[in-house]
Specification:
Trypsin_dom; globular; serine protease; disulfide bond; 14 strands; mainly beta; signal
């Protein structure tokens, strides 16, 4: 009986070790001179997935990556993502390569949506208020609504792999939500590529749909 108990205890211990971290732990802030530049999500122990806007050589500042536990890291290189979205949209997302390998808690990849959230479903919109992560449920816009909102009738920006979320937040300037995800059913479903009221001033925020492609 004692041996059986120890064996069961060992199995439980392994399960605890393999348990996935909370979604918030995958979120990373890109900081330069105490200012938020972008966000991204950890996809493995060596790489961060984020918006193409966040490519390091597009910014005059050298930014530092700040993780949920307060630890920091830096970037050695960046490459176009070819695995986390459709091929037609892969150039909108990049992978940042880390100078230091992350801990074993990130051995398993984060949960990523297997399906596009139905348009009638509200999703969890994440944003930063200083250093505080805020979450709220937000309706989606249909493709046609979103194209009308940002004056893109031909679908040059809003293609099949773009998800638009309604955001009524008032801001006088650009809110740098580049690279922050939205969540549906406890999985990451999209990455913000245009911030909020940045290149396009509108009540719709634009996300590339995430999906694993192999």
């Amino acid at each position: 009986m004692g041996i059986l108990f120890l064996a069961l205890l060992g199995i439980s211990h392994v399960k605890l070790l393999l348990a996935a971290p909370p979604l918030e732990d995958y979120l990373v802030r890109f900081m330069a001179n105490d200012r938020l530049i972008c966000s991204g999500i950890i996809v493995n122990r060596r790489q961060i997935l984020t918006a193409g806007y966040c490519k390091p050589d597009q910014h005059a500042e050298n930014f530092t990556l700040v993780f949920s536990d307060g630890s920091t890291n830096t970037v050695t290189d960046s490459t176009v993502s070819q695995y986390y979205t459709a091929k037609e949209s892969s150039d909108l997302l990049i992978l940042l390569h880390l100078s230091k390998v992350l801990g074993e808690k990130f051995t398993n990849p984060p949960p990523i949506c297997q399906y596009r959230p139905p348009t009638e479903h509200q999703v969890e919109y994440w944003s930063w208020n200083g250093n505080i992560l805020q979450k709220k449920y937000t309706p989606q816009s249909t493709t046609l609504e979103c194209r009308r909102e940002i004056k893109d009738p031909e679908g040059v920006v809003i293609g099949n792999d773009i998800v638009c979320l309604k955001n009524m937040q008032y801001s006088e300037g650009c809110v740098k939500n580049f690279g922050i995800p939205f969540v549906w059913r406890n999985s990451f479903c999209g990455i913000n590529i245009l911030g909020h009221n940045c290149q396009i001033a509108s009540k719709a925020d634009i996300f590339v749909r995430l999906r694993t492609t192999n």
